[in-house]
Write a structure and sequence with these properties.
about 400 residues, mainly alpha, 17 helices, about 65% helix, elongated, binds zinc ion
Length: about 400
């Protein structure tokens, strides 16, 4: 085979049957071919870049053309003409130079390309979650850096990402403030009780923000992080119970331990359910909302117990029951909006980017978390003001 034929033969050419230069060029695979991209790492970067966002390309439904990736029209006739012209005008050298220039131009266009948001219909099935959101979806972005860069673009997940990212930062700062207090200001047991709550909130909000950022990476990554997202909710609910039970039953240690044990068992059960593969499917949305709502509502049992024993006024004054009820209301409202996809179910396509049910749910979760923080810090203040338990007899600790 001559150098010329060799240069035009790409990978899978059958060298036992020489082909003409034109046939060889026709056989050449497109540079964005999936298999070729796997073989050549640099092309994976090209594919990554193809998936870059361009928020300015938010399409309305009518004018929408899907999630366009660059395509290179392969016109056999133009190849024929190019080869013939090149051979006539300058031979092999010119042909190779032209091919090289064309390839450089193609690469430049590819790097300059950017991904655009998608219509729901054009998403792969594993990214189709809420069909009431019509436009503004991110296409699959099989690169973590592209996923994290998309935080700064406008799409259906922008609000979901930022609500819990900012919440995560706020609670991290809160943890730092409380944990750096002196032993006199905040003794170690109180630091542990409050710290459990802060860490639960940080894990929940952190997992949620990460999930919403990377779930368009691939089906595997999406499922993995959705499980972590649900685990985070279970951890936050558990973490919310700990300081409330700790201060409510401060002087009744056995009772406190029984309730804490139940909460931890329910928390572990919720995490196990969250790890179930099918749990993240969109048809299980009401089940997800229901299971976490029931877990949260299980707090009614120790709350009622406290009211029966201490009376309503004491429950409000010393156990922050009013804040607890407000927190429960906010969580339940958020869960209901999430489960029934309000308001987008009434106006499909109107809340694609802002004020969709999931964003409202996120905001209500943050609000509920701060309400609960306020409630447990009031309980902490009360506990620190009265000091140790008055009488530690067997009757009072049970
Ligand atoms: Zn979420």
């Amino acid at each position: 085979m001559s150098d010329f034929e060799d240069a035009l033969s790409f990978g899978d050419s059958d060298i036992s049957q020489p082909m003409s230069p034109v046939q060889a060029l026709r056989k050449r695979r497109p540079i964005w071919d999936e298999q070729l991209a796997k073989e050549i790492p640099a092309l994976q970067e090209v594919q990554e870049f193809l998936n870059e966002d361009d928020s300015s390309l938010l399409d309305d439904e009518d004018g929408y053309h899907g999630c366009p990736l660059p395509s290179t029209p392969v016109d056999p006739a133009s190849f024929d003409r190019e080869v013939v012209e090149a051979l006539r005008s300058g031979g092999l050298g010119t042909l190779m130079h032209n091919a090289h220039e064309a390839e450089k131009e193609f690469m430049r266009k590819v790097w300059a390309a950017s991904w655009s948001v998608c219509n729901f219909r054009h998403l792969p099935s594993w990214l189709q979650d809420n069909d009431y959101l019509h436009n503004g979806h991110r296409p699959p972005l099989p690169s973590f850096s592209a996923c994290f860069k998309s935080i700064f673009r406008i799409h259906t997940e922008t609000g979901n990402i930022w609500t819990h990212l900012l919440g995560c930062i706020a609670f991290s700062a809160g943890l730092l403030v409380y944990m750096t207090r002196s032993e006199e200001e905040l003794p170690l047991p109180d630091k542990l009780a409050l710290g459990t709550y802060f860490i639960g909130a940080i894990i929940c909000l952190g997992f949620s923000f990460t999930f919403h950022t990377v779930y368009c990476h691939s089906e595997f990554v999406g499922k993995l992080f959705s499980k972590l997202d649900y685990c985070g909710i279970a951890i936050q609910i558990t973490g919310s119970f700990v300081p409330w039970l700790y201060y409510s039953f401060y002087c009744k240690v056995r009772r406190m331990m029984v309730y804490l044990s139940f909460v931890i068992i329910l928390g572990i059960a919720s995490i196990v359910v969250s790890l179930w593969d099918k749990f993240s499917e969109s048809r299980f949305r009401p089940w997800r909302a229901g299971i976490f709502a029931i877990f949260g509502l299980s707090g009614v049992v120790p709350a009622v117990h406290y009211v029966i024993e201490e009376g309503w006024v004491n429950a409000i004054t010393y156990a922050s029951l009013d804040w607890l009820i407000l927190m429960g209301f906010l969580y339940l409202l958020g869960a209901a909006l999430y489960a029934f996809r309000v308001p987008e179910c009434f106006f499909p396509g109107r809340f694609d980017i802002w004020f969709q049910s999931h964003q409202i749910f996120h905001v209500l979760v943050i609000a509920a978390a701060f309400v609960h923080l306020h409630g447990i810090t009031e309980m902490l203040t009360y506990r620190m003001s009265i000091g140790a338990c008055a009488v530690q007899s067997a009757a009072t600790v049970l």
